[in-house]
């Protein structure tokens, strides 16, 4: 079906169907094999199974991009198979398991 364009006269008719995450959405990462998506928010990460579109896990870690000339910024990466999510903050590394949201390593 054709949907009408959104414009100033009908924008007030929009209805929120769902809301995800807590904080500001930073990015969405998709695993190389296409099985897993990570919705990266400023307050944490939500992991989704892309075959079922079900949420697999949620874990909370600060992902703010720090602005300090003496330290490197926060970075993150979803593993190619979607099993792990790695967070690098300054001189810390966190490795999270995506199926249950558990922190596997912190160093």
Tell me the radius of gyration: 17 Å
Query: Mean pLDDT, as a whole number?
Result: 81
Distance between the termini: 53 Å
Q: H/E element string?
A: EEEEEEEE
Give the % helix: under 10%
Spatial strand arrangement across the major sheet: 1-2-3-4
How large is the share of residues in beta strands?
35-45%
* Structural class by secondary-structure content: mainly beta
Unreliable residue stretches: 66-72
Annotation field: number of helices = 0
Oligomerization status of the protein chains = single chain
User: What sort of overall outline do the alpha carbons produce when their principal axes are compared?
Assistant: elongated
Biggest β-sheet, characterized?
4 strands, antiparallel
Strand runs, count: 8
Descriptive account of the structure:
By secondary structure, the chain is mainly beta. Helix content is 0%, strand content 41%. The strands form 2 sheets. It has a 4-stranded antiparallel β-sheet, with no helix packed on it. The termini are far apart.
How would you sum up this structure in a few lines?
The protein is mostly beta strands and 107 residues long.
List keywords for this structure.
107 residues; mainly beta
Reconstruct the topology from this structure.
Layout: E1 25-30, E2 36-41, E3 44-49, E4 54-59, E5 75-78, E6 84-89, E7 92-97, E8 103-106
């Amino acid at each position: 079906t054709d949907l009408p364009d959104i414009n100033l006269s009908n924008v007030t008719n929009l209805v929120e169907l769902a809301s995800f995450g807590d904080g500001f959405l930073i990015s969405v990462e998709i695993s190389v094999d296409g099985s897993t998506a990570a919705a990266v928010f400023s307050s944490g990460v939500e992991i989704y199974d892309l075959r079922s579109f079900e949420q697999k896990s949620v874990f909370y870690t600060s992902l703010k991009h720090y602005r300090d000339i003496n330290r490197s910024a926060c970075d993150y990466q979803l593993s190619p198979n979607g099993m792990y999510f790695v967070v690098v903050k300054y001189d810390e590394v966190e490795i999270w398991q995506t199926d249950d949201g558990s922190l596997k390593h912190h160093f």
